[in-house]
Every structure is written in structure tokens, then in C-alpha cells.
Amino acid sequence: MMNSTVRKIISSSSITLRSSWSSTVVRSSSDDAAKKTKKNKVPEIKDRIFSVRVRGSDVMRDPGVNKGVAFTIKERQLMGLHGLLPPVVKTQDEQVYSVMENFLRWDNDLDRYIYLMGIQDRNEKLFFRVINDYVEQMLPIVYTPTVGLVCQKYGVVYRKPRGLFITIHDRGHVYEILCNWPQDKIKAIVVTDGERILGLGDLGAFGMGIPVGKLALYTALAGIHPKGCLPVMIDCGTNNKELLDDPLYIGLRHKRIQGPEYQDLMDEFMEAVVRRYGPNCLIQFEDFGGHNAFKHLDRYRSRYCTFNDDIQGTASVALSGILASLRVTKTNLVDNKFLFLGAGEAAFGIARFLASALKIKGLSEEDACGRIYLFDKDGLIVRNRPEMVDEMRRPYVKDMPHLRVFEEAVNLIKPTVIIGAAGQGPLFTPGVLRAMAQHNERPVIFALSNPTSKAECTAEDAYRYTNGKCVFASGSPFKAVTTEGGRTIYPGQGNNAYIFPGVALAVVMCNIPRITEEMFVVASETLAGMVKEEHLAEGRIYPPLSQILNVSLRIATRIAEHCYKNKEAHYFPEPPDKEEFLRKRLYSTAYESFEPNSYPWPEDIPQ
User: Fold this and answer.
1) Do residues 478 and 459 lie in contact, with contact meaning Cβ atoms separated by under 8 Å?
2) CA nearest to 428, candidates 453, 396, 406
3) Fewer beta carbons within 10 Å, N or C terminal of the chain?
4) Long-range contacts: 535-539, Cβ < 8 Å, 24+?
5) Counting Cβ atoms within 10 Å, is residue 577 exposed (0-12), middle (13-18) or buried (19+)?
6) How many CA within 13 A on the CB side of residue 598?
7) Distance (Å, rounded) from C-alpha 191 to C-alpha 208?
8) By the 8 A CB rule, do 350 and 373 touch?
9) Which residues of the chain have pLDDT under 50?
């Protein structure tokens, strides 16, 4: 009989398969006239010929084509597979059931992650089908919070290379290394140097788990073909002594190299990507140290197709949550005061993005920055404090007492919104939460640090100490909370996965060469607009994760419309129906048939 847990999961799944599409297709304006006459038509599946030139066990070694026991008997005989597989022939639905049976046998998330990566190594379409069908169950495993533990244990988890490792000692040869990657048509790269992995600090080469996880979501949540995705680790060493002494560490065993050598390597990497894959190849920066993250973004954004998810993606999802919360608090954006715990890469990125949104609403630069307060490890950022304040954060300096206790800052400023992105654990204390409830009818509390162990507070504490009054969101998932009054509240998760897959889908499919701040504003507004009244009534300020596939497509559609309107998209002719254009180009998890078409010749022709 079917396991009751699996039956419950399968019966509750609302995800349906998308239209079949065996590869990502992007044509540029340089296509010749013959191609243009076809109006960029995507042929129906019956018109496509899907051929594989390998046979026998080589077929099963290629996860892009392997179907396991889903190969038909005829396919097995034609391709030299007969006898290499058990005689049973299963449908993909039956394979999904088998995966879920095994998935639920494991009693910890790290083992579940390893099991799923094994599926990806053997059968890509099955792997992504499982994620699509059970996204709420799978997202916390392949992404936050489990990916943080995966990175910490990467020496144990590592089985096979899933991307490129480029080291500081490879300067002058980066292009050659890119040429070693077997796929020629790379559309999207996620790159990290491992210096600031989530809230866990410097994990060096163990940080490769982040690009691998992000790009899995490019495919699972945005339909970008996995063969067009490339994870990259820039290994310049690590300052983490525990890793340097760890016999399982897979990276360079010396202190992190910075300065001109590091910058030369990054410049060479960016130039090599364009030389190898073209100027429209998307480069997403991920988990760089704060001092480098802003520098890279400012240095490269005007010359390359690039963005930083920690700065721009986090800011976009946070702004979306704030916009949705306004429908609960019944206030306008410009009427709020925002206090940030943390002033690093994520927190300051949100602050800058929020200031831009306030200016769009009519405030001056000075007034917009005046509504934003920053509190870092040295306390409230004010004019007379002894610690230096860098140039970027100077517009947010206030003329007020220098407080070193966050609760005191809450009582002095009386913010309507507090946003935690410090990565230092539970600093939203019961006192802080009670103070927010005392000063506001509906306080807004965002504990955005990842993974769960680094969150500023739990959902349960936020609701308990504000008497269920707060509007709450977190970076990592928390279970529903039942208050003393019997109300069940579903915490919002301000997950970057709501934003970056949709942005990437639009950029890749529409040949958008530069990624602007306005595109992230469009993404924020689109996401906030998808929150329904019933979601707000449940405590959510983001759509349920089960809808995230539709969210990505909607965001990509709105960005495509925005970019064509502003002449920033270079795929021509311009598709009249942007959503349909994108939908037809999504990667499909449906299996292709390997049985060739056959047809008779005239009888009088020798055969």
C-alpha cells in the first residue's frame, strides 16, 4: 500500500507540469533573414527530433538524458540498454513516488540533501520534477536553511564537481579554465568567493554549495535549462583556521589573498566570461564579503550583465514584504520609520533600496534617508560616535545620542518597522519585541538572517511577545504558530527565491544586457501585488511557496514588459505576448521519447 505520508503529500500537491520544452531557446537580433521569417516560432513537440548519439551505459551516465527504468522496452533494445536495467517499466509519476518514499526515510535534512543530489547526478528531469511537485517540502532542503549546513559539511557532502573552481593561482589562465567546461552555451553563472556564506562567515571553497543551490532554483523555479547554468567558486584561500586545519577541506590551504591580486583575478574572470559566453551571459554575485560585494557591484554593473543577490535580491524581497505589510498597518510607505539591526551587505542593500523607493514616493534624498536608522556592531550610527562611518553610510548618520543597546534605540526612535540582517542570532530580545508592540498598533518585524540559527528571533517569539499583533517575516522558514487565543498564523518567509529566478528568466530569455535597480522595483511591486487578502488574513505577506513557479513567471513577464518599453531588451522581434513567449521556453521535466519516427518507402524502391 502507498505510504500514508506520501499519499498525503501527493494528494495535496497543486503543482502541474508545464508545457514540454527540451531546451532553452534564445535568438538575438543578429539572426539572419531566414530565421526571422519564422517569427521565432517554437515548434510543437511532435515536430521536434530529440536524438542522442551515445548508446548503452553511456546513456545512463548522462543525467540530462537518463530516464532510468522509465525507458520503454523498445528504447532499451534500440539503444543497447536491454538487460542493463530491471525488466520493469515505470512512468515518471511512479518514479516520483519512489523518490518520495526514500526521501521520507531519512531522519535528517543533510542526508535528505545528499539523497536528492544523487538523484540529480543520475536523472535531472526526475530531480527537477520532484522539486516542482513538492516545492514547499524541497525548498528548505536544496536552499536555506539546509544549504548552510551543507556548506559547513561540504567536505563530507562533496561527491563530484558541479561547477568550476578558479583559484588565485590561475591568473592569466581563467579563459582556458572556462573552456574546460563541457557546455558551450552558458546563459547564467552564479559566482562566489566564499568569504561570507549566509550568516556563517568565511567558508572558503566549501561555499560552492551556494552557487550549486542557487542554480538548481534557476531551473526548478524559473525553467532555465540546467545545461545553460554554471556554478563558479573563486578560491583565494580562507581566513577560517578551522577549515585550514580540517583534513576534509577541499580548497586552498592558505590565508585569503586580497588587494590588487584579487581584483586582477576578478577583472580577468569577468572579461573571460564575456569572451567565452558573450556579453549577455548573466553573472550573479553571491555571498562575497561586504567590502567586496558593493565594490564589485559598482565596478561591474554598468559594463556587464550582473547583479548581487545579497544586496539587490534581498532588498527587493524585503521591499515587497514592506509594501504588502502596508495593507495590514493601513499606512503609507513615507509615514514609516525603519530601524535596521546590521549595516552590512544585506542590511545596507535594503536600506539603499528602500531610500530609492521613498524618493519615488516623493521624498527628497535627505528626507528619505532621514526615515532610515542603522544600528551596527558598534551601536546606533550617529554623528558623534567614536567609530568611523564610511562614505556610503554617511547619508544615514543621525544627530542623536550614541546608543549601544538595540532595545534602547527602539525606545528612543519608536520605529514602525525593524529589520534584522546582522546574522548574529537572537538579538530581537523579548524586550525589543515588547517595545515594538508598545509603540505600534501593528509593529512590522523582519528577522531576515540565514540560516535559522542566525535569525534575530523566531516566529513564535515574535507573536508571543507582541501578543499576536506583529506583522512578521523571516529569511528562513518557520512553522505556523497558534496563539493563546487559538488563532493560527502562517509566518511570511522573505526568501530571495521569490525574486532572483524571475529576474534571471527575463534577462536570459529577452537578451537584457544590463540589470537596473528599476527592474528590482518592478519585481518587488509584482510580488507584493500577488499577495491576496486571504493571505494577509493568515499572517502571510508573501504568496505561499507552492505558488512560487507562477510568481517567477509573473515577475519575468513584468520585467520583460518594462525592459521592452524602455528599449532595454534586445531579443527581436519583440514578442507581443510576453508571458506566452516565456512560458514556451521553460525547461520541461517531461521525458522525451528516444524511439525514432519510422515511415514506409514506395514498394518499388529497393529496401
Assistant:
1) yes
2) 406
3) N
4) 536/324, 536/327, 536/328, 538/488, 538/489, 538/490, 539/471, 539/472, 539/489, 539/490, 539/491, 539/492
5) exposed
6) 2
7) 9
8) no
9) 1-2, 7-49
pLDDT digits (tens, 9 = 90+) for 363-417: 999 999 999 999 999 999 999 898 888 888 999 999 999 999 999 999 999 999 9
Q: How confident is the model at residue 160, as a pLDDT?
A: 87
Tens of pLDDT, residues 543-575? 999 999 999 999 999 999 999 999 999 999 999
How many angstroms separate the CA atoms of 383 and 492, rounded? 35
Per the CB < 8 A criterion, the answer to whether 351 and 418 are in contact is no
- Indicate the pTM of the whole model: 0.89
Task: Report pLDDT for 42.
Answer: 41
411-441 burial string, b = 16+ CB within 10 Å, else e?
A: bebebbbbbbbbbeebbbbeebbbbbbeebe
Residues in the chain: 607
d(CA 207, CA 593): 38
Q: What angle (nearest 5°) sits at the alpha carbon of residue 306, between those of residues 421 and 542? A: 45
* Catalytic pick among 125, 214, 227, 578: 214
Residue 493: strand, helix, or coil:
strand
CB 360 within 8 A of CB 367: no
The CA distance from 397 to 374, in Å, is 8
HSE of 284, CA atoms in CB hemisphere, 13 A: 30
Q: Where are the beta strands (DSSP E) in 267-381?
A: 282-285, 306-308, 338-341, 372-376, 379-380
Look up 249 and say whether it is catalytic: no
Kindly name the residue from 143, 277, 373, 490 that is annotated as catalytic: 143
DSSP 313: I
Q: Which of 407, 409, 408, 401 is nearest to 374 (CA)?
A: 409
Our answer to whether residue 158 is catalytic in this structure is no
Cis peptide before 145 (omega within 30 of 0): yes
| Dist CA 179 CA 420 (whole Å) | 42
Q: State the pLDDT at residue 365.
A: 95
- Which residues, 6+ apart, have CB-to-CB distance to 136 below 8 Å? 544, 545, 546
| Cβ-contact 163, 208 below 8 angstroms | yes
Q: Can you give the pLDDT at residue 51?
A: 60
3-state SS of 364-416? Answer: CHHHHHHCEEEEECCEECECCCCCCCCCCCHHHCECCCCCCCHHHHHHHHCCC
What residues contact residue 242 under an 8 Å CB cut-off, 6+ apart? none
Q: Distance between CA 335 and CA 134 in Å, rounded?
A: 40
Of 223, 190, 215, 128, residue with least CA distance to 579: 223
Alpha-carbon distance of 300 to 312, in angstroms, equals 14
